[in-house]
């Protein structure tokens, strides 16, 4: 399948939340040559109306459609469905690299540990859509933002603004810690970044832009 077909497929699937953000993600991705994603979406999960658990590759379909030079994507799970984006990338002459951070199966939801890549290559856009906890996002931002030249985009920032993905709350100084707390704390000490978009719809999308 070609990159344009995968993008259309994603848009027409209309389940989950990320598909809603695809046009906006595409707009940003088209200004970038190097794109990095934390949370490819290879953990299959049950979707209403489907017999088999589904993977969620809306971001990846969008990055391919933008035809950058290189896409690097990370997940803790693996699913053979990734062969379709690989074939499309090959046809479109896009370098696609997938890294599995840990070999964690379907029940990874219990895992609250922080898992981030040790280092990443320089990139224009970093999309963060992995394990939605305060600790994970704090680690992702503090360790890897310096490698990003243009945009950091985060999904689910409304759904998990205060509290974590998997239901257990992290209490700290009387607050429920979540993605909003991690983001606010990061911006307090990184004034080279500014908030340029906050969309509450479809679980929330936040965009930081590096100041010129
Ligand atoms: C919400 S899905 C990602 C959806 C996908 N980005 C999309 O656009 O459709 C979250 C994914 O993050 C993965 N994940 C969880 N913890 C992670 C981590 N520490 N690093 C990278 N990926 C992680 C899960 O296995 C799952 O596939």
Could you explain how this protein is built, in words?
There is one protein chain. This protein is α/β, with parallel strands linked by helices and 212 residues long. The chain has one domain: Rossmann fold (3-Layer(aba) Sandwich). The chain is 29% helix and 24% strand. The protein has six helices and nine strands, in the order H-H-E-H-E-H-E-E-H-E-E-E-H-E-E. The strands form two sheets. A seven-stranded mixed sheet has the order 3-2-1-4-5-9-8, with helices on both faces. It has a two-stranded antiparallel sheet with strand order 6-7. Helix 5 links the parallel strand 4 and strand 5. Helix 1 runs antiparallel to helix 3, helix 2 packs parallel to helix 3 and helix 5 packs parallel to helix 6. The longest helix has 12 residues. The protein is globular and about 45 Å long. The mean pLDDT is 90. S-adenosylmethionine (SAM) binds next to helix 3 and strand 2. S-adenosylmethionine binds next to helix 3 and strand 2.
């Amino acid at each position: 399948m070609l990159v344009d077909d995968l993008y259309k497929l994603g848009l027409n699937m209309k389940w989950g939340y990320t598909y809603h953000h695809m046009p906006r993600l595409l707009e940003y991705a088209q200004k970038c040559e190097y794109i990095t994603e934390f949370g490819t979406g290879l953990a299959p999960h049950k979707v209403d109306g489907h017999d088999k658990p589904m993977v969620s590759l809306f971001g990846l379909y969008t990055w391919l459609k933008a035809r950058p030079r290189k896409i690097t994507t990370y997940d803790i799970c693996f699913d053979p469905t990734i062969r379709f984006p690989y074939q499309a990338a090959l046809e479109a002459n896009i370098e696609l690299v997938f890294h599995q951070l840990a070999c964690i199966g379907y029940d990874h939801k219990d895992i609250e540990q922080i898992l981030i890549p040790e280092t990443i290559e320089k990139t224009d856009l970093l999309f963060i859509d992995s394990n939605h906890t305060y600790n994970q996002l704090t680690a992702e931002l503090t360790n890897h933002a310096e490698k990003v030249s243009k945009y950091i985009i985060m999904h689910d920032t409304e759904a998990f603004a205060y509290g974590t993905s998997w239901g257990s709350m992290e209490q700290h100084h009387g607050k429920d810690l979540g993605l909003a707390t991690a983001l606010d704390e990061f911006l307090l000490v990184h004034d080279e970044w500014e908030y340029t978009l906050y969309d509450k719809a479809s679980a929330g999308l936040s965009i930081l832009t590096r100041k010129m």
